[in-house]
Amino acid sequence: MSVLLIAEHNNKEVKPFTLNAITAASQIDQDLHVLLIGSKADDVAKSLSEVPLVKKVLHIDHEIYENYIAENYTAAILKHADKYSHIICSANTFGKNLMPRVAALLDISQVSDIIKVISPDTFLRPIYAGNAFATVKSNDERKCVTIRPTSFEAAETTGGSAEIEKIDAADQTENTKFINREEIKSDRPELGTARIVISGGRGLQSGENFKLITDVADKLNAAIGASRAAVDAGYITNEYQVGQTGKVVVPDLYIAVGISGAIQHLAGMKESKVIVAINKDGEAPIFSVADYGLEADLFEALPQFLEELNKLNTIQK
Amino acid sequence: MKILVAVKRVIDYNVQIRVKEDGSGVVTDNVKMSTNPPDDNAIEEAVKIKEAGKATEIIAVTVGEEKAQETVRKALAVGADRGIHVKVDGTIEPLAVSKILKKIVEKENPDLVFMGKQAIDDDCNQTGQMLAAHLNWPQATFASKIEVNDKSLKVTREVDEGLETIEVNAPAIVTCDLRLNEPRYASLPNIMKAKKKPIEQINASDLGVDTNPRIEHIKIEEPPKRKAGIKVASVEELVQKLKNEAKVI
User: Fold this and answer.
1) pTM over 0.90
2) Which CATH architecture does the domain made up of A196-316 adopt?
3) Which residues fall within 8 angstroms of residue B150, CB to CB, at 6 or more apart?
4) B104 SS3 class
5) What is the count of structural domains for chain B?
6) Which residues does chain B have within 8 Å of residue A290's beta carbon, measured at their own beta carbons?
7) Could you report the per-residue pLDDT of A185-200, keeping only the tens digit for each?
8) Which of A6, A52, A108, B140 could be cross-linked to A89 through a Cys-Cys bond (beta carbons 3.0 to 4.6 Å apart)?
9) Contact between chains at A239 and B231 (C-beta distance less than 8 A)
């Protein structure tokens, strides 16, 4: 038995969630091989080979994999997946798009978004937006599993020296063409992995007012998040959305500002270690999950919050 | 173009889920059920495409128990032309649903299949991609914008890093995100008219698809509860607590 983990990367670097998935995969079976499908991604292969938990890197290098297209990735995976008991990847938009296509062609009923490995065939996964946890056992001979990255620590990235084996590409689809990707570059920590997240909701009332959030984020070196209501209202773009259909975050500190706390939003943040809610409606459901609740007008509270944080620094100096 | 839209009946998104004490599942008796929210976006998009003169027929399909038909009826009330209800009782996994939908696609020959990106009950996010795999069709998942051309679609997808645009040739599968559009409400006259639109009933067992679950649900339990928090009186107190008590700043 060996497990095959599909790496997510941009041909230059491994994406951080792949490291969390590596940890989960190694808990299923220690004979962990990583499949890297890319174009001119030798640096990625090298860095994966240095992850101590990885026993072998399988590297497919071909220009057709310059951009990630699920159809092309699936063909490549199926060509090399025969001898593996488990095929694994992270349950972010990368893995969610890819894994079911692989599973269907292998006639495997996929186990999505696991938060705990109980045994090689039994896993814990949230259902109903995290309002229930299901212990599930896969009775398929082989398994396809996606990993909720924030539920597992990231694997160590140095000290390993796994073999890198070059393997063949598969055929390319003619029916899907990559056009472009609009990525917003930011100096802030990534939402999915940040230690502190500050999120704004409909209470912000406009996109301009998000500046109150960004000011505090800059001060705390925090990532910025948003509720679906704020994204739907056009205050901020979709990649900031935290919730059942957005991103799931588990920071040390989550600050929810002007967010009422719909079930869908709670699904994305209620596992955070410490939760702060700032809302002028004392009855808002967000207070039911908050460790510290402040019933206040955010337009007064946020500037004060920034001021108090500045004072802290002065004292420390 | 002919568009097939798949819809699922789920516990309404506003209902607070209660887990059964015996660990066998969640309480569904006397609980409000609705169409899975992004499936409403899928229907809406199909109707808009038809209104723009680019589609000729919309067929709504659901797979599930007797009452699942309600979701098809709702789709008919907002603009689908006819419905199909594949009847099956008990738990049915995305893999089996995708195999059933493949049979329906082979029978109906649509140019496009739309559905929500994820059902809010099991949160699997699998069926569309699996159907695309079975049919060997291209897939455009998590769509927030769809541009219909002659024989292809340009689809903007919501991905972790932002937005990605791809072009897929028809026939294709599109799974819809909540921001794709604003689903309309059915008007009373349209609800009345929908009652006259045909819904074909098919038994899953007649389609020759094995629907036995491959995944055993050993236990359903409540997630660990957070311990109750406190209300602070001022921003100053909040900052002091975060620094000295929680030690996170």
Assistant:
1) yes
2) 3-Layer(aba) Sandwich (3.40)
3) none
4) helix
5) 1
6) 229
7) 788 999 988 999 999 9
8) A6
9) no
